[in-house]
């Protein structure tokens, strides 16, 4: 590949590069790279500093609870976009739609007739023993049988360029606000880089989300009132809650703003009195939603919400109990789940996974611990992950003890070299590992936001892209 000033020293070192392709000598000059050649590193860094100041001034932040020195931080922004061709996007879109359709069918069955257990496709104890399984939802009918209205499918690309599913997010997947704001930021800070480039838009997400939530309210209500329920200003994703409520044009409420009357109807308090609520897009966990049913000490939800849900007088997105489909052990069964409900082979493959609750799998993992990535099944955000090839002897010894003590709590996967994308550093453009989280909205039919959140491991050599672990984000361009 031809190197310009910005690309001096750029070496993917055998990894698949999102701009130049496979590291096999067949790289082609990319139009984006040609445009970047017009900039020097000083100019890129100056513009990027201005963009990050704008993020901070706009309050586009997330909270790091473990860092006592700083409550709010901006998500590090990288101005070098990640491109996805239309051909690749068609595959990703089809695969994400298929996966979310199967997940909704699975959840409807788990809380319905439970045929998948009777047909021995997946062990019943694996699901009903999951901490996110809610027995209170068994037998509850939901509009369109939609349980995960907003889903995030985490994808990676291996060294051969194949997209693989890393995990599913069916509770309250976050990050879509960064998808939209990153695009706005690029349009303001790098209009010359975007000029004439045919990129699929992302700015209609709020309209799509409102339509999805409206479609999945109880059918008899006309012009249903949608609200977004937030835990409050101290939540790590509070900026996103405000952003999405504004994008949809709906009220942002806290639990103390909601009341349930004796007829199981939900109302919100307003300066004009009580106003009926028909759909709650909640961004709080199941356990805190209704103190009548779950945690008695919760001050975040409102008493009676589950009564209203069961009476068909309110809808809740995502559905209570949808988190059982997030489980990393359930993830390992997804190829079988897709085949069972849709009679199709997966469009997007899983990463090879060993379920440590199974005897043979546990034996393999213990024998090859130094080569594998071990993950707790119920965690998210990159917490609790042990990357064998990068772990210390003490870390490996600790996870070995945990695996023997509680094998059901873990899965293991091979370490995959995530694809890299040129990322701005003070030394120039350098390869940094990336993943991708497309967002899928499901009302009557699933719809996939073009692109999604590209997260980038800002530290050299790091494979952990989560914002809670120091990762940043890029704008994602799906080319027309």
From TrEMBL:
Q: Which domain of life is it from?
A: Bacteria
| Domain Circularly permuted ATP-grasp type, chain residue ranges per copy | 81-457
Q: What Pfam families does its record include? A: CP_ATPgrasp_2
What the entry lists under PANTHER family is as follows: BLR5612 PROTEIN, SLL1039 PROTEIN
- Which named protein is this? Circularly permuted ATP-grasp type 2 domain-containing protein
Q: Which organism is it from?
A: Hyphococcus luteus
Its lineage opens with: Bacteria, Pseudomonadati, Pseudomonadota, Alphaproteobacteria, Parvularculales
């Amino acid at each position: 590949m031809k190197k310009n000033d910005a690309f001096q020293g750029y070496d993917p070192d055998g990894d698949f590069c999102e701009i130049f392709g496979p590291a096999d000598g067949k790289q082609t000059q990319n139009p984006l790279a040609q445009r970047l050649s017009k900039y020097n590193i000083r100019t890129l860094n100056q513009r990027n500093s201005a963009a990050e100041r704008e993020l901070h001034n706009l309050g586009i932040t997330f909270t790091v609870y473990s860092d006592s020195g700083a409550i709010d931080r901006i998500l590090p922004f990288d101005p070098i976009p990640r491109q996805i061709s239309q051909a690749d996007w068609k595959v990703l879109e089809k695969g994400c739609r298929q996966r979310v359709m199967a997940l909704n069918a699975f959840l409807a069955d788990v809380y319905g007739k439970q045929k998948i257990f009777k047909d021995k496709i997946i062990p019943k104890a694996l699901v009903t023993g999951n901490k996110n399984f809610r027995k209170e939802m068994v037998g509850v009918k939901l509009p369109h049988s939609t349980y995960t209205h907003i889903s995030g499918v985490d994808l990676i690309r291996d060294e051969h360029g194949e997209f693989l599913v890393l995990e599913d997010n069916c509770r309250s997947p976050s990050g879509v606000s960064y998808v939209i704001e990153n695009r706005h930021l690029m349009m303001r800070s790098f209009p010359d880089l975007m000029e004439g480039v045919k990129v699929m838009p992302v700015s209609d997400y709020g309209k799509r989300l409102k339509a999805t939530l409206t479609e999945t309210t109880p059918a008899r209500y006309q012009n249903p009132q949608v609200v977004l329920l937030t835990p409050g200003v101290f939540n790590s994703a509070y900026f996103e809650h405000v952003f999405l409520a504004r994008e949809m044009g709906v009220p942002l409420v806290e639990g103390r703003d909601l009341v349930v009357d004796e007829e199981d109807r939900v109302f919100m308090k307003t300066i004009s009195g009580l106003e009926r609520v028909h759909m709650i897009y909640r961004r709080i966990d199941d356990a805190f939603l209704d103190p009548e049913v779950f945690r008695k000490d919760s001050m975040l939800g409102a008493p009676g919400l589950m009564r209203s849900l069961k009476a068909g007088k309110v809808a809740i997105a995502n559905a209570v109990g949808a988190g059982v489909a997030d489980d990393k052990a359930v993830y390992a069964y997804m190829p079988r789940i897709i085949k069972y409900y849709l009679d199709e082979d997966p469009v997007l493959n899983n990463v090879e996974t060993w379920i440590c609750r199974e005897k043979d799998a546990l034996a393999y993992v213990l024998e090859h611990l130094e080569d594998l990535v071990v993950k707790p099944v119920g965690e998210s955000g990159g917490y609790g992950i042990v990357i064998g090839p990068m772990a210390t002897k003490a870390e490996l010894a600790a996870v070995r003890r945990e695996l023997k003590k509680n094998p059901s709590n873990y899965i293991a996967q091979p370490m995959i070299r995530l694809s890299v994308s040129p990322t701005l550093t003070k030394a120039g453009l350098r390869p940094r590992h990336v993943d991708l989280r497309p967002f899928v909205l499901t009302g009557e039919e699933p719809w996939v936001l073009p692109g999604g959140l590209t997260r980038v491991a800002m530290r050299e050599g790091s494979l952990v892209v989560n914002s809670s672990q120091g990762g940043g984000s890029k704008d994602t361009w799906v080319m027309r």
